[in-house]
Every structure is written in structure tokens, then in C-alpha cells.
Amino acid sequence: MKTESYVRTEMLGEKSPPATTVGLIGWVRENLFNGWFNSILSVLSALALFFVLEDILPWIWRGTWTGTSLQNCREVIQATYGEGVTAACWSVIGDRYHQLLFGFYPSELYWRPILAFVGLLVALSPVLFTSMPRKFLWFSAVYPFLCFWLLWGGSVWLPLSALAGFVLGYLAFGSVGKAAGNLAAVIAAILVPVLWWLFLAGNVASGLESFIPLELQHVESAKFGGFMLSVTIGVTGIALSLPIGILLALGRQSDLLILKSMCVGFIEFIRGVPLITLLFVASTLLNIFLPPGTQFDIILRVIIMVTLFASAYMAEVIRGGLAALPKGQYEAADSLGLDYWQAQRLIIMPQALKISIPSIVSTFIGLFKDTTLVSIIALLDPIGMSNTIRSDTDWNGIVWELYGFTAMIFFIFCFSMSRYSMYLERKLQTGHR
Amino acid sequence: MTALSDPPKEGFRLGMLIYDSRYRSMTIQVAALVGFIALAIWLVSNTAANLAALDKSLGFGFLMEPAGYDINQTLLEYSSRDTHLRASLLGLLNTLLVAAMGCITATIVGVIIGVLRLSHNWLVARLMTVYVELFRNVPVLLWIVLIMAVSIETLPQPRDFRGDNPAATMKVFDSVAVTNRGLYVPEPLFSRSLGNTHLLGESSLRFDVSNDLIVILIALFGGIYAAHRVRVRADRIQAQTGLRPTTWWQRLGLITGPTIVVLIALGFHLGYPALKGFNFSGGTYMRNSLLALWLALSLYTAAFIAEIVRSGINAISKGQSEAAAALGLRQRRIMSLVILPQAMRVIIPPLISQYLNLTKNSSLAIAVGYMDITGTLGGITLNQTGRELETIMMLMLVYLGISLSISFVMNWYNDRVKLKER
Questions:
Q1: Per-residue pLDDT tens digits for A213-249
Q2: Does residue B14 belong to the interface with chain A, where contact is any CB pair within 8 Å?
Q3: How close, in Å, is residue B112 to chain A by CA atoms?
Q4: How far apart are CA B401 and CA A395, in angstroms?
Q5: B310 and B110 Cβ atoms separated by less than 8 Å
Q6: How many domains does chain B fold into?
Q7: ipTM of the predicted structure?
Q8: Residue B182 has pLDDT above 80, yes or no
């Protein structure tokens, strides 16, 4: 037998793939020039990107931070870069950033909104990230009252007595619950604080104030403005619209006909009209609906209307989550012998809310963006403030710098909210797909 | 605690209203109803007391009084001697105009961007992501005022077009003037016009209908219908013989032919805007407030529609396109016959709510001075007559009506395309 000499006995080493399919060249071929249509698209978008950036980047980069007015600032630019060069006048931001952030809030008191904002971050952290110490939740519970006191000032006893109402309600719930059962406890937990707020809280607060005066300088709502106003309205609206939205969604899903039709009517009405009409109601009509002589704060009125508006949308979003839940979950909860609220709290809501996280967060983002509409009823939010700055003779004619700055801050807020929702979705993902 | 096996006691006790689940739901509902009625009565009585204190009475007579203000962009003829009702009507038409224009452009831009965002082309997909995030995360009001401010500050004034060596020139073969007051585009004119039909006499709702337009529309829709018949016939022939006759040129001719004949018969030509004195005359004038609103609403809503389209296409499982490919369909037909019809079912419901949002957002017109219904009825009419309650109620009802009709039409369409389940 003869050995077959043409059979190779040793293996050849692996060859590297062709240079055009790996590395940078391969990636570019695969992702940018894959076929004639893609190539054209790539070239066109690269050109567009180039022309846009060619215009914008030098404009931003050459921008000046000196100058006291638009005129002055343009002269500085012309002097530096020669005739005909346009560049940003960032000096408007340097000149007016405090108005864009705080409105006409007294400048010696800026530490208060700043402290309130830092407090907001601390109060939010345990709510947003479960890895934070749970004890912080106590701070989150107290924070709304603290924030109110810091922003508006006045006597510390007013927010404290309001807070006392909730504590009283909680105590009443506990004590009556032991003595007379659940339902009575719920009634007591509602009645006691309401009575306290209506009849006692004011007197107690003023009494304590005369006893131990402890107050910050009062700042009226008309001084609020800029992002401080947006964040105040937005955060309050967000915090309140979620629970109201949940209740409305449950009402809409319930078998109780009258309750259901009231919820449906409310939701559909609110969703059918633009927010601006509700803000008109806040600014002109709300006082007509209330007992004669009632005058209350415009920011509070706006917050009420924005909250109602957002909660109708929230209700629909949560209803979507409820509808997406398999019926077996409801039946399983029933078969465990849980009553309605237990089932909602332990079985239904955690899943329904998890399903609707993306939509809930986009409703939040929408609400935060919609706070800009208050500029139409003459509140000085960042857009209202920009209009004020632009009507000033110094800065008459400035556009991109001012709106660009405002847009950037809104972008940071909203984009981080949407990123957070993606993080939360990933974290709560328990299914296997 | 009593044992569960106890037979239910006969007779009705008051406690059962709360503790017996048969009656409890009724109790809760009655309580809710009573609370609701009490709230309503409280609100109404407060309102009555407040109105009495202000010496006002509820009534809609003010609608028939002369408005006394001008509307700067109108679809029908209007003068300041007309009534508040007519001013509101014109505002409503302006709202509908910007909403319709916005919905159309937002859909086109949104679909293109949504599809491009799914592109395998890395650069294009990234650019579209940037677009979507940029527009979604910045308030629409900011876009509106920004575009308005940019158009006022950077576009040439009409007087820049004057002189032998003007600072600005008209675009697109000297037919379009882009100025900081707005856009002047050519208008269609008819040298052998059939005139207008005047409807509803002298009432506040009067309007003119152009006879030319009616004739053109009849010709166009007649052509479309004939082309449809041709296609149906081609389908039938294909079903019978397996061969499809070539019909595209017949259909093209049927759609365009009659319209072109009618246009020639009416003596159709374009009227170009021309500079007269300090401003342009002739042509159709679109104020920059309308343009800013339209552009901002379209671009903003397009970002949302892009996301809807993207998720709709993503929602179709890969198996569908693979199955279609296995059947031997070509890429384009896979898209049009398999993917899109299924994706439409996912896309349409959120698309409806985007249209509704756009329509409601068009009320932000008031920020740039475009006279939509919020600007007329809820703005100047309110301020002039001092009737907040009536005007705002009417304003809300109008928007409610628009929203309900849009969702009614779109839901009807949705019912037609949705999955038919047994």
C-alpha cells in the first residue's frame, strides 16, 4: 500500500479575515456603506452634520461672556474676530442666569431655594434608589412641609401644624381601628385631620407663633419664577398626580356604576380640553367657584389644575397597566381571600405599575414640560422670564443663547427622567424573555 | 366572632349597609353620588353668589355684539364690525387649519424618521435618535416661541427686497418671499372663474364657497373613482386569467386628465406676490405666527410619532418577515403586504392620541399671537366682554367637541383595521 502523499498531515494556522471585513474598515463597510442607498444616506447625513456643526461649533466656541448688552457684546465679538463674524453672546446668561433660575426671588435669600433643591434630591434618593438607607424615607415624608417653609417662608408653625394633621390622622387610624374596626378607622383618619385643619390648625399655629416666634422672611408667590417655579409646580404635580391617578384608574375599572361614570366623565373631560384652558380657569374662574371672598395663591391654583390635568392622563396610563394584567392575577388574589384593597396593594398594583412605568414617566416628563404653559397666564417661568429679558432694551433681539440655555436645562431634567425609567424597568424586570 | 356556618339572620339591619357586601357597594355609590351632588350645588351656589356680587348675569347675548377687533389671519372674510360669534368661528377655523396642517406634516416627518431610526445605517440611526430625544425632551412652547423669535430676528424685512441691489431676494424662481412677517407664496387664480356661492346670507356663520374649487374637486374625485374602477377590473382579470393587464398609465391619465382639462378651461394661473411699497401684495400670505406654530407642532409631534412607528414596526415578530421571505415575496412587498398592515394596528391607537395632543397643543397659538379660538374666544373676546365663565366654558366645549370627533373618526378607522377575532 502506498501512502497518499497529497494528503496534508498537519493543520494550517487560521488566516485572519479579509481586511475589509474587520476593524474600522469592516465596521464602516457594514454600518455605513452597505449598498448604494445606504452609502448615499451616509454621505448626505455626514454632509448635513458637517454643515450644521461647522456653523454651530464656532458660534458656541467664539461666544463671549463679556458685555453688558447685546450691542456691546456684538462689538466685543467684532473687535476680536473681525467684521461679519457672528458668535454667541453668553453674557446674557451670565447677566441674567439668576433670573432664569429663581425669577425675582430676593437675591439674599437664594440659599433657601438652593437648600430646598438639595433637600429635594435627598428626599427623592430613597424613593428612587432602593439601595439608599431606608431611614431617609422619614426625611422624604417631612420634606414637602420643609420645602414649603423654605420657599415661601413665614412661620414654621404653619407647615408644622399642617403636618400635625397627618400625624393626627395616623394616630386616629391606629386607635379607632383597634376599638371599632377598619371602616370606622378610615372615617376617623379622614375626619380628624380635616377637622384639625379647618378649625384648630390655624389657631394653634398662630398661638405657637406668638409663643415661640420662629419664622423666615415671607416671600410672596409673585416673586417666584424661572426654573424654581417650574420645578415647584412640576414636582408637586408629579407627586400628587400619581396617587390621584391610581384612584381614578381604580374607579374607572370598578363595578360601581355611579363611581365609574363619575371617573370616566372626569377623565374624558380633562383629556379632551387643552391644559391652557384649565390654566385660564385657574387664573380667572377658580375664585368664582369658591365661596365669596376666597383669595388664594396663584401658584397653588395652578398646581391644583396641573395636578388634575396630569392625574387624568395618569389614570389612563395606569388603566392600561391594569388591563394588561392577566385576569388570573385578580382571581388568584380573590382565591387567597384577600379583600379588595389588600389585593390591589399586594398583587395588582405592583404589577400594573411595573408594566406602566415607561408611560408613567413619559406622563411625568409631559407634566414637567407643560409647566412652561404658565407663562401664558403671566407667571414668570423660564419662558416667561426669557420674554421679559428679551423685552429689556439691553437684550432686545437675543434668541438662541437664551432659549438654548433654557432648552438645555429642560433637556437635562427630562432626559434624566427617561433614563431613570429605563434603569427602573431593567431593575424590575423579572420575566424571562 | 360568630362561626362562618351561621345561617344569615333574617331581616334588615342598618349595619348591613356597611358590613354586608350585598349592600355595601350600593352604600358607597349613594354616598359618592350625594357627595358629588353636594359639591355641584356648593360650586353652583358659590358661582351664583360671586356673580351676583360682581353684578353679572349668565348669558350668551354678548356673542351677537360687534367684536371690534381684527383677526390677522382669516380663512373667511371678516371685519371688526362682525360679531363675537363670527370672530370665534374664524378662530375655530384657524385652529382646525393649523391642526390639520400639523397632523399631516407630523405624520410624514414622523414616519420617515421612525423608519430611518430603524435603519442599519449607524450614522442615520444615531442622527434620528438625536432628533427624537432633542424634540421630546424640550417643551413644545419653547420650540414655538424659539421658531417665532428666530423668524422675526433673522429673516429679512419686506423692505430689504426693495431697490436695485436688494439685501434679500425671493426664493424658488422669484415666486416665494420669505420675510420676517411671514411667507408669501403664489396663489391660484382663474381667469374664467365661475365665481362664488354665498351661503347663509348675512348671519354670523355666512361663508363663500368657490365654485371653481367645487368643479375641480368633482373632476379630481371622479378621476380617482374611475381609476379605482380600472384597478378593480384589473384585479378581476388577474383573478380569472392570472395575467395582470398594465394599467398604471390608464389610471394616471384618469386621475390627472379631467383635473387638467378643468384647470385649463377655468384659465388657471398663479398670482405671484410682488413688492408694492413697503409690503408684498398678491399671492397667499401666511403669517409667521402660523408658520412658527405649524413648524413647531409638526416637528415636536413628529418625534413622538417616530417613536410610535418604530415601536409598531418592532412589535411585529421577525418570524413574520421570515415567513413572507420564505413565500418568495420581495423586500418591498414584505413591507407593504405583511409588516405594515400588522404594524398599523399597533400604531393607530397611540397615533390618534398624538393627533389629539397636537390639536390641543395648537391652543399655544396664543403665545405667538396666532388668532386661533383660544386667541379670539378665550383671549380678546373674554377680555373685552369680561364674561370669563361663558367664554371659557364655550372654549372647553369646543375643544371637547374637536377631541371627541377626532377620536370618533380615528376609532372608527381603528375598528376597521384591527385584528378580526372570532
A1: 777 888 888 888 899 999 999 999 999 999 999 999 9
A2: no
A3: 13
A4: 43
A5: no
A6: 2
A7: 0.88
A8: yes
